[in-house]
C-alpha cells in the first residue's frame, strides 16, 4: 500500500501515474480493514460555501483548482513579484510582496540591510512585504551598493531590484524627503523617520530621556489610535547593567506636525543636539555611579505603584537606592533585563511588513557573562558600586530613574536621578545628646562593633542571636528617641523608625511586615528604632489572646534579627519576662536635671540661630533651666517663641521665650513653675 501525499496537486499527479486516490475512486479497497489499520491516508476537501456561507468537508476532489503559481519554472527567476489590485486611484496594481530568489542579490543585500531587525538575507526564501519599510529606511545604502558593485551579474540583479522598487516607492521616497526638508511629518507616514537602531528622544515624567528604537506599529485603543515605539534603555537589575524595554507612544494627529513637537522623535532632530547629548551622558554617568546600594537624600517627585496605576509622591526624605532589594521585596515588579553582551533586540514590527524566519543579533561586547563581577564597596558608607564602565553610547541611553526605598514615606518608589542629593550629616548630633559620657561611649561602641563584627558570634542554632537589642526606658522627652537618631547619624547609617501602627494589628500582617522590616534593616546595616514599643513589650495575660499572639510573633522573629534595634518605652515595669533575656543592654532615663535642661536649651538655641551666637545671657539660661520641662517641651516653647519673634520682625530674645512660658504657665500649672518658687 502506498502513502498518498496530502497536497491536492500531488494527489492528482499520483492518480495520473496509476496510484489510487480515495477522493476520486468510490470503491472501498479494504472492506475488511479494522479502524485505523490501513497504512494510507484519506484526503478530505473543503466544500464550496452554501447560501448561508457555511462549508463542510467532503471526499470529492475539487474540480475548480488552478495550478500553483510557484513551481520549478518560477524558481529560476531572480525575483518573484506578487501583485494585488490597487484601489487608491493612482494605478491598477500594486506590489503586495517581493520574494528574492537570486543568491547574488541576497549577497548584495547583506550589506544594505546589515543589522536590520527581522531580516536574514542568507535565507533560501527571503520575502519583503509592502510598504517595504526596510528599503525606505536603507534607500541610500541600496544606491551606494549599486554604485560600488563590481561584479556585472550581481550589479544586473541589483539594478533589477532597484528599478522595481524605485517605480513602486517613488511617491513615498519623494514624500519622505519633502517632510524631512520641512521638518514635519504626518501620522500615517511617521514610521518613515523611525529607522530601527535610531536613538530617540522623549520626555518621561519630566525627565529628558534617550532610548534605542527597535520597532514600531500602529495600534488602536479605546482612547484612539497611536503609534507604539518599542524601545530599550540601559538599566540596572541589582547585579548587572542590561537593556530594559521602554515603550513610548505618539497619539494620532491631523495633517502635519513638526517633528520636534512629537512626544518622541529621533534625537538627531533635536534643536540643541550637542548640549542635549552632553547632558544625557552626564546623567548617565550619575546613573552608573548610583548602581548598587547607596544611602542618599532626596527632594522631588517619586513614582509609586497604586491599585490603578502609577502614583506620584512628593518626597523629602533620606532614601535607600537598592535595586537588588527592590527585586527581593517586590517579586511581582522585578527588574528583568537583557544582557548588554547581546544586541539591542532585533524585533520585527508587526506592521512593518519586513519579515524573515530568523533574527539577527548584533554583538555589543561590554563584558563576558562568564566573568565574576565583583562590587567595589566603600567601607565607611557601605555603598557598593559596579566597576564595569559603560560606553558613551550606553551612557546616553541610561535610565533617568532609580529603584529604592523612602525611609520617611516607608514605600518602595522610583526616584529621578536629578533629585538625588548627598546627605549633610549633623556632626554635633551625638554631642548634643544629654547623657553621661560613659553611657554615650558604651552605646556608640556597641553599635559600631555590631556592624563590623556581627558574624563573629553565633548561637547554638545557626543564625540566632546575632543582633544587638537595646531597651531605652524613661519619661517622655528625655532623649530616648534622640539616642537612636544620634547613633545612626554618627555612624552615617540609615535610621529606620517604625511604630506599632506601621506593622498593623492583625497577627499575620504584623509577622509579614515585621519580617520584611527586620530583613531590610539587616541588609542595609541600618539602625532600627521601634518607638513606643509597649504593645509588643507588655507582659502577656490570659485574657487577651490576640495581643499575646503579637508578643509571641515579636519574640520569635527578634531571635533571628542580625542588626541593631533600639526599643523605647515609658512603661518598663510592664515588660514581659521573655524580653529580659533578649535585651543586651537596658538604659533607664530619669527626669532632666537643671544642668541637663540648661544643656538642652543651649543646643536648641544654637540650632535656631543657624551658626550665629544667640542673644541669651548666662543669667537667662540659668532662669530657663530652672523650669521643670523635658526636652520636647523646651523645643516646642522655642519654636513658638521663634514664631512670635518673627511676627514682630525681631530676632529671638529672652522676652519672647518668657512670654510663651507665661502663657504656658497658666495652662500647665506647677509643671512650668520656677524651681525654688
Q: Give the termini distance in whole angstroms.
A: 123 Å
**Strands of the largest sheet, in order across it?**
12-7-8-9-10-15
- Stretches where pLDDT is under 50 for at least 5 consecutive residues are 1-25, 342-382, 457-463, 666-677
Helix and strand content put the structural class at: alpha+beta
Shape: elongated
How many separate helices? 19
Average pLDDT across residues?
A: 80
Roughly how many Å is the radius of gyration? Answer: 38 Å
Task: Summarize the amount of helix as a percent range.
Answer: 25-40%
Query: What share of the residues does DSSP label as strand, in percent?
Result: 15-25%
What is the tally of beta strands?
A: 26
The biggest sheet, with number of strands, parallel, antiparallel or mixed sense and barrel status, is: 6 strands, antiparallel
Main attributes of the structure:
677 residues, ATP binding, alpha+beta, AAA+_ATPase, 32% helix, six-stranded antiparallel beta sheet, ATPase_AAA_core, 26 strands, AAA+ ATPase domain-containing protein
Plain-language structure description:
With 677 residues, the chain is an alpha+beta fold. It contains 19 helices and 26 strands. The strands form 7 sheets. It has a 6-stranded antiparallel sheet with strand order 12-7-8-9-10-15. Helix 2 crosses helix 4. It is elongated. Residues 466-591 form the AAA+ ATPase domain. It comes from Letharia lupina.
Topology (SSEs and partners):
Elements: H1 8-16, E1 45-46, E2 57-58, E3 79-85, E4 93-100, H2 103-112, E5 126-129, H3 133-137, H4 139-148, H5 152-182, E6 184-186, E7 199-204, E8 207-221, E9 224-236, E10 241-251, E11 256-258, E12 264-266, H6 273-289, E13 293-306, E14 309-322, H7 323-329, E15 338-339, E16 354-355, E17 376-377, E18 384-385, H8 392-396, E19 401-406, E20 411-416, E21 420-421, H9 437-452, E22 468-473, H10 480-491, E23 495-498, H11 500-503, H12 507-523, E24 527-530, H13 534-537, H14 545-558, E25 564-569, H15 577-580, E26 585-588, H16 594-608, H17 618-625, H18 631-647, H19 654-668
Helix pairs in contact: 2-4, 2-5, 4-5, 12-14, 16-17, 16-18, 18-19
Amino acid at each position: 500500500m502506498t502513502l498518498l501525499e496530502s497536497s491536492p496537486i500531488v494527489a492528482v499527479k499520483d492518480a495520473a501515474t496509476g496510484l489510487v486516490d480515495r477522493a476520486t475512486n468510490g470503491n472501498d479497497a479494504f472492506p475488511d480493514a479494522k479502524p485505523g489499520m490501513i497504512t494510507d491516508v484519506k484526503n478530505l476537501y473543503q466544500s464550496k460555501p452554501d447560501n448561508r456561507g457555511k462549508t463542510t468537508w467532503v471526499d470529492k476532489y475539487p474540480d475548480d483548482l488552478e495550478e500553483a503559481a510557484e513551481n520549478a519554472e518560477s524558481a529560476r527567476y531572480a525575483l518573484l513579484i506578487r501583485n494585488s489590485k490597487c484601489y487608491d486611484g493612482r494605478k491598477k496594481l500594486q506590489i503586495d510582496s517581493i520574494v528574492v530568489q537570486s543568491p547574488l542579490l541576497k549577497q548584495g543585500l547583506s550589506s544594505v540591510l546589515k543589522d536590520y531587525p527581522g531580516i536574514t538575507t542568507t535565507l533560501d526564501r527571503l520575502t519583503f512585504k509592502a510598504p517595504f519599510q526596510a528599503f525606505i529606511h536603507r534607500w541610500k545604502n541600496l544606491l551606494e551598493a549599486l554604485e560600488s558593485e563590481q561584479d556585472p551579474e550581481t550589479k544586473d540583479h541589483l539594478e533589477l531590484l532597484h528599478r522595481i522598487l524605485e517605480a513602486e516607492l517613488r511617491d513615498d521616497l519623494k514624500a519622505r524627503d519633502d517632510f524631512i526638508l520641512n521638518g514635519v511629518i504626518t501620522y500615517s507616514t511617521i514610521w518613515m523617520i523611525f529607522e530601527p537602531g535610531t536613538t530617540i528622544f522623549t520626555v518621561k515624567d519630566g525627565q529628558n530621556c534617550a532610548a534605542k528604537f527597535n520597532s514600531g506599529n500602529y495600534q488602536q485603543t479605546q482612547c484612539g489610535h497611536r503609534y507604539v515605539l518599542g524601545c530599550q534603555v540601559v538599566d540596572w537589575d541589582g547585579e548587572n547593567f542590561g537593556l530594559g524595554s521602554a515603550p513610548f507612544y505618539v497619539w494620532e494627529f491631523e495633517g502635519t506636525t513638526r517633528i520636534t513637537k512629537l512626544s518622541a522623535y529621533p534625537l538627531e532632530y533635536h534643536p540643541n543636539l550637542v548640549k542635549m547629548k552632553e547632558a544625557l551622558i552626564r546623567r548617565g554617568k550619575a546613573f552608573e555611579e548610583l548602581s548598587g546600594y547607596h544611602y542618599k537624600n532626596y527632594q522631588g517627585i517619586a513614582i509609586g505603584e497604586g491599585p490603578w496605576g502609577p502614583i506620584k509622591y512628593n518626597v523629602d526624605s533620606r532614601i535607600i537606592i537598592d535595586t537588588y532589594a527592590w527585586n527581593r521585596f517586590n517579586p511581582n515588579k522585578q527588574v528583568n533585563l537583557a544582557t548588554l553582551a547581546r544586541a539591542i533586540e532585533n524585533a520585527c514590527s508587526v506592521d512593518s511588513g519586513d519579515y524573515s524566519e530568523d533574527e539577527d543579533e548584533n554583538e555589543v561586547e561590554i563584558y563576558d557573562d562568564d566573568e565574576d563581577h565583583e562590587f567595589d564597596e566603600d567601607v565607611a558608607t557601605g555603598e557598593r558600586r559596579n566597576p564595569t564602565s559603560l560606553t558613551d553610547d550606553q551612557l546616553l541611553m541610561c535610565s533617568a530613574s532609580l529603584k529604592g526605598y523612602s525611609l520617611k514615606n516607608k514605600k518602595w518608589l522610583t526616584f529621578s536621578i536629578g533629585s538625588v542629593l548627598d546627605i549633610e550629616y549633623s556632626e554635633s548630633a551625638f554631642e548634643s545628646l544629654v547623657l553621661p559620657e560613659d553611657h554615650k561611649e558604651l552605646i556608640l561602641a556597641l553599635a559600631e562593633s555590631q556592624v563590623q563584627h556581627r558574624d563573629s558570634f553565633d548561637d547554638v542554632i545557626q543564625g540566632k542571636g546575632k543582633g544587638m537589642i537595646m531597651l531605652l526606658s524613661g519619661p517622655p522627652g528625655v532623649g530616648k528617641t534622640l539616642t537612636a537618631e544620634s547613633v545612626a547619624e554618627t555612624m552615617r547609617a540609615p535610621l529606620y523608625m517604625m511604630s506599632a501602627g506601621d506593622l498593623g494589628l492583625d497577627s499575620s500582617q504584623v509577622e509579614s511586615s515585621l519580617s520584611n522590616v527586620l530583613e531590610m534593616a539587616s541588609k542595609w546595616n541600618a539602625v532600627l528604632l521601634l518607638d513606643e514599643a509597649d504593645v509588643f513589650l507588655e507582659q502577656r495575660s490570659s485574657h487577651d489572646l490576640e495581643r499575646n499572639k503579637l508578643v509571641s510573633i515579636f519574640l520569635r522573629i527578634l531571635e533571628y534579627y542580625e542588626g541593631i534595634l533600639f526599643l523605647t518605652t515609658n512603661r518598663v515595669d510592664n515588660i514581659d519576662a521573655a524580653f529580659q533575656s533578649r535585651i543586651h543592654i537596658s538604659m533607664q532615663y530619669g527626669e532632666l536635671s537643671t544642668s541637663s535642661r540648661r544643656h538642652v536649651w543651649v543646643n536648641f538655641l544654637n540650632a535656631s540661630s543657624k551658626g550665629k551666637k544667640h542673644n541669651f545671657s548666662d543669667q537667662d539660661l540659668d532662669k530657663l533651666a530652672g523650669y521643670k520641662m523635658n526636652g520636647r517641651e523646651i523645643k516646642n516653647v522655642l519654636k513658638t517663641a521663634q514664631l512670635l519673634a518673627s511676627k514682630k520682625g525681631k530676632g529671638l530674645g529672652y522676652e519672647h521665650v518668657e512670654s510663651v512660658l507665661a502663657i504656658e504657665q497658666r495652662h500647665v500649672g506647677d509643671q512650668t513653675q520656677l524651681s525654688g518658687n
